[in-house]
Every structure is written in structure tokens, then in C-alpha cells.
Write a structure and sequence with these properties.
Mean pLDDT: 94
Strand order of the largest sheet: 3-4-5-2-1-8-9
Structural class: alpha+beta
Strand content: 5-15%
Number of strands: 11
CATH architecture of one domain: 2-Layer Sandwich
Bound molecules: adenosine-5'-triphosphate, magnesium ion
Number of helices: 21
CATH topology of one domain: Beta Polymerase, domain 2
Shape: elongated
């Protein structure tokens, strides 16, 4: 099994001081699968103070010393080193009441959530696998360590973690664990929005997102009731939604927009607020959901107007979303969106004016005509729309004449106003 030098250094030091030490959890799982490893976590028989002693001279961060975790910076990489522990009584379905340090790695592995996450490896001592993780990895199965229902009652977040790993790894959830996931999903109501949202985003980014959402939609709608009309009442629409979510580009905003594409923008906004999504994400997703069944531009001028309205990036996202939604509904004629994409490219390549910033006249020019300051914005916008619609070139002379005419007619024509 591959293990990078900076992690090996950490294991060697702990071994050298007489302690056991292994890489553990997600790093072992991913390394065995041959996929990129996020962080190398280490588990050790050394107590936190002992670990700190061993790494004197290193940069050490006391991240979670109460839970037995010390972060050591090794060759520029943060490595979390956690003392073998088992978790005490669970008071609130989430936080272990008290952490008990133990001297046997077996107990530490048995407290972990899923068998594929419960393996440890060191070059010196080899693979430690006490719950059949290697076999489940080969069979591509997520299985709770021990009785699934018991493990989910200890910590409800594990219900959503099972779903997340199924999507991320493209694994299936073993049948007893799956039954517990579905039966215990109400436990998610006790879990904080931040943690749920973080798991949801990882689920949406997974390679197996379509299949996983299809099968575990009701888990998601337990904490996003806005989706219940799909997950529990309209299997066909939910299936389309799952397919669209797996088809759009893998960015958080687009995946969320696909998930919420048929619930309407108000419901999406409410759900995202409850999940405590950051403002930018919430705004963009809501914008896209609001446009999920709007009319698309049918000409180059209309395309310019839309770029002006939502920005080029969001228009590109919208096209991606609309293509994914059509494909999911069985419609593979992308003529409309392809034509718009071509217009967007031309508009960008030609540097067409799509904002007041690049208009050949500005506020000062308009004021110099002696208009009231409160009319400046309206007049500039009228000129901008005339340019975007190709009724006028983007040249100062022509634009000033146009604006003078509008002023002399007192009020801009209705038809020249932005729609
Ligand atoms: P990722 O690639 O997302 O980092 P990971 O498996 O490393 O995946 P983490 O959340 O970083 O997941 O947790 C590290 C390890 O700690 C897990 O592999 C698992 O062994 C254990 N673990 C984490 N959260 C829980 C939990 N809620 N219950 C039991 N064990 C857990
Ligand atoms: Mg991790």
C-alpha cells in the first residue's frame, strides 16, 4: 500500500519512541482503492501528551486534545494524530459524552462507522482489519461496523455518511445497513444543518450521485422537506432530478440547482437558508432554479440582454442545467442551447457591449446635457439596450444624439426601456 514519506516519518517517530502507530480511516480506504487521498490520519497508542513529546521540535497544533487529537505539521503537511480510543455513552445522538483512551487498536477500529473506514495500515505492522473491511472494499459495499441500528442511534450523522460514501465511492449499501439507513433516517433531524449540508454537497459531488439519490431520496428529504413532493410522491420526476444532478458539471452550485430544479425558487431559497448555505451559493442556486423553466434567449440581442441580467457565467450554468434537465427528460435535441452557446462565444470574442461599464457614454456625458441627475440611469440604460439590440453602434456621437433626442421628447419611449 502506498504511503507518502511525510506520513511515514510520523509513524516511524512514534514507533521509534516505543508506540504503535498506523495510518487509518479514509486514507487507508482511498489508498487501497487507488484513488487520491485527502488527508493522512494517524492512530496511535501514545497518549496526546506523549505524542506531543515525540513531536517536540515540530509544529504541533492542539486541535482536539480533549478527544485525543494532536495535529503535527510534517514536511508541510498537516497530519492528525489521534490516540486509540473508544467512545463513551452517547447523550445527544451526536457527541460522545466522554472519550476513553485505550491501548488496543482493535477497540479503536471498532468505534469507527463503516468497515471500509475501519482499517489501519503501517509499513512495519501491515494491515489491521478487524471487521472485514478489505472484503467489503473488494465487494464495493458500505457496511456498518457492528449493528447498524445501534451505530446510527449513537450518532445520527452516520445515516447521511453512509449515503455520502455510497455516492462518493460508487458503492452499494449492504442490506442490513441499508434497512437501518432508511428506518433511522429521522435521526437526521437532530443533526446540525452545517454537518448535513457538508455531507449533502459531498453526496452531490460523488460519482454515484444519480443512483444514490434515486435509492436514498427519502433520506435527503428527511432534512429537506421541500423535496418530499418528489421523493415520496412523484417517482418519475425524482428520477429525472437524480439524472440531471449527475449530468450537470460537478460544481456545488450546479448540482444544488439540479437538485432543486423542480421545486421553485422560493422553496429552494428556504431550504438553502435552513441549511445555512453561504449567501453567494444560495443566491446563485436560487437564480438558476428560478430560470429552470424560463424562456431562453431566441436571438443574439436577447442573449446580450440575458448576459447583462445574470452574467455570462450564470448564463453558461443555466444552459448546462437546461441541457441536463432536457436529457433527463429524454429530450436530446440541444439545438436551442447550442445556438445560444455560439452567440455567447461570438459576443465575448467581439467584445460586444453588455454592460454600462463598456458603453461609450457615461454618467458625466449625460449630465453635461443638463438632464436631472435622477434621470441619468434611465437614459444610460435606454442607450445600453439600444446598443445591445443593435439599434445603435456603441459610439459616443450616435449615443449622445440618441440621448439628446430622448431628453427633448422629455421622457424616454416606453419601448426603449429595459423590459
Ligand atoms: P474523507 O475523504 O471525506 O475525509 P474520511 O473517511 O477520512 O473521508 P472523515 O470524516 O475525515 O472521513 O473521518 C475520518 C475517519 O474517522 C473515518 O474514516 C472513520 O473511520 C472515522 N469517523 C469519522 N466520523 C465518524 C463518525 N461519525 N462515526 C464513526 N466514525 C467516524
Ligand atoms: Mg478524512
Amino acid at each position: 500500500m502506498y504511503i507518502p514519506d511525510y506520513a511515514k516519518t510520523v509513524l516511524d517517530r512514534l514507533n521509534g519512541a516505543g508506540y504503535e502507530a498506523y495510518a487509518v480511516g479514509g486514507s487507508v480506504r482511498d489508498s487501497l482503492l487507488g484513488v487520491p487521498v485527502n488527508d493522512w490520519d494517524v492512530t496511535t497508542s501514545a497518549l496526546p501528551e506523549e505524542t506531543e513529546q515525540v513531536f517536540r521540535g515540530f509544529r504541533v497544533i492542539e486541535t482536539g486534545i480533549r478527544h485525543g487529537t494532536v495535529t503535527v505539521v510534517s514536511e508541510g503537511h498537516n497530519i492528525e494524530i489521534t490516540t486509540y480510543r473508544c467512545d463513551g455513552a452517547y447523550a445527544d445522538n451526536r457527541h460522545p459524552e466522554n472519550v476513553v483512551f485505550v491501548r488496543d487498536i482493535k477497540e479503536d477500529l471498532l468505534r469507527r462507522d463503516f468497515t471500509v473506514n475501519a482499517m489501519a495500515y503501517s509499513p512495519r505492522d501491515g494491515l489491521r482489519d478487524v471487521s472485514g473491511g478489505m472484503k467489503d472494499l473488494e465487494d464495493r459495499v458500505i457496511r456498518a461496523v457492528g449493528d447498524a441500528h445501534t451505530r446510527f442511534s449513537e450518532d445520527g450523522l452516520r445515516v447521511m455518511r453512509a449515503v455520502r460514501f455510497a455516492s462518493q465511492l460508487c458503492f452499494t449499501i449492504e442490506s442490513a445497513t441499508r434497512d437501518a439507513v432508511l428506518a433511522d433516517r429521522y435521526l437526521l433531524k437532530n443533526i446540525s444543518s452545517e454537518r448535513l449540508f457538508s455531507e449533502l454537497k459531498k453526496t452531490l459531488a460523488g460519482r454515484g450521485v444519480t443512483e444514490t439519490l434515486k435509492e436514498y431520496g427519502t433520506v435527503i428529504s428527511t432534512f429537506i422537506p421541500e423535496l418530499v413532493p418528489l421523493t415520496e410522491k412523484d417517482a418519475a420526476l425524482w428520477e429525472q432530478t437524480c439524472r440531471a444532478a449527475g449530468t450537470v458539471k460537478n460544481d456545488t452550485v450546479l448540482r444544488l440547482a439540479a437538485l432543486f430544479s423542480s421545486v421553485g425558487k422560493d422553496a429552494a431559497a428556504e431550504a438553502l437558508a435552513r441549511l445555512k448555505a453561504d449567501r453567494k451559493t444560495a443566491e446563485t442556486v436560487t437564480l438558476l432554479v428560478g430560470l429552470a423553466d424560463a424562456e431562453l434567449p431566441r436571438s443574439k440581442p436577447q442573449t446580450r440582454r440575458m448576459i447583462h441580467g445574470v452574467g455570462e457565467e450564470n448564463l453558461g450554468r443555466l444552459l448546462d442545467l437546461r441541457r441536463a434537465m432536457s436529457a433527463a427528460a429524454g429530450d436530446t435535441d440541444f439545438g436551442d442551447t447550442e445556438r445560444i452557446s455560439a452567440w455567447i462565444s461570438e459576443i465575448a470574442a467581439d467584445g460586444d457591449c453588455v454592460s454600462l461599464k463598456s458603453l461609450a457614454v457615461g454618467g458625466k456625458d449625460v449630465l453635461s446635457l443638463g438632464v436631472r441627475p435622477e434621470d441619468v440611469g434611465t437614459l444610460l440604460n435606454a442607450a445600453l439596450y439600444a446598443v445591445m439590440d443593435e439599434r445603435l453602434p456603441n459610439r459616443k456621437n450616435e449615443l449622445m444624439t440618441y440621448i439628446k433626442n430622448l431628453v427633448s421628447e422629455e421622457m424616454p419611449h416606453e419601448k426603449d426601456n429595459p423590459a
